[in-house]
What we know:
The protein is mainly beta. Helices cover about 5% and strands about 75% of the residues. It contains 2 helices and 12 strands; from the N terminus they run βααβββββββββββ. The longest helix has 8 residues, at about 20-30.
Amino acid sequence: PLSKKSSFMFASRVSYLELINIKKKINFNRGLERSYRGYTFFDINAKVNYDIKSNERVFLNLYFGGDLLRDLSQFYHKKELNFAKPKQFSQSFSLKYIKEINNKVFFNSVLYYSGERRKDIVFEEFNEILPADNRLVKSTNFESKLNSSINDVGLKLTADFAPNSRNYFKVGVGYIHHIFNTNNSNVVTGSNLHYSPKYDTITSNSPLSFSSEWYQFLQHNFKFNRNFEIVFGMRNTIYTQKKEVLNRMDWSITTSYTLGNN
Length: 262
């Protein structure tokens, strides 16, 4: 706790596969291993709660994580080096506000952002030995970088109503804005044969694309008794992308039965 009204939580995780393969990685860097494959996962979570009043509370959540893969190989008898390094990152942010109107009605709103980003790097290098002085020089190389991402920004408003112990209602509206970045690439090919450098670069940047969705939903939980419950749900969603509009209505009925007397 930070004070009587606020609290803070921080957590982080990281994989230890790289530590297990540390000897193999050192040998690869020294030229004693022909290949090396490594994987690292990490994430960071942070949460802050603050009580505005006895019936009002604010929650702030932050998340960032990533997956890193390394696939490296080198062949000295062919004088070749290549590697692939795909990376994927996820991040999210949410700000939630909850207010208790009375002991039967609750209101909450959530403003959030979430994103996925992927980066692929492929590199290949081929060398040659000059016959004149038996010297190793870089002859040709190929490097490709590809970036793509998906980002969402949304707002959700929800009201909860529990008139009695058997009935529980939830109604809400929301909006999500999607941003797609599907292909930003940069490819470089080059040669340095006999001290005649030549490099070609190809860059491709696709324009960003956008879409959005509005939705409304209604949920009713009804308890027949302590063990048996049935849930009715309805959701109406309107998708828009450029000039296209799609309206979809979904209905659901689920049941649950709890064993025991609790």
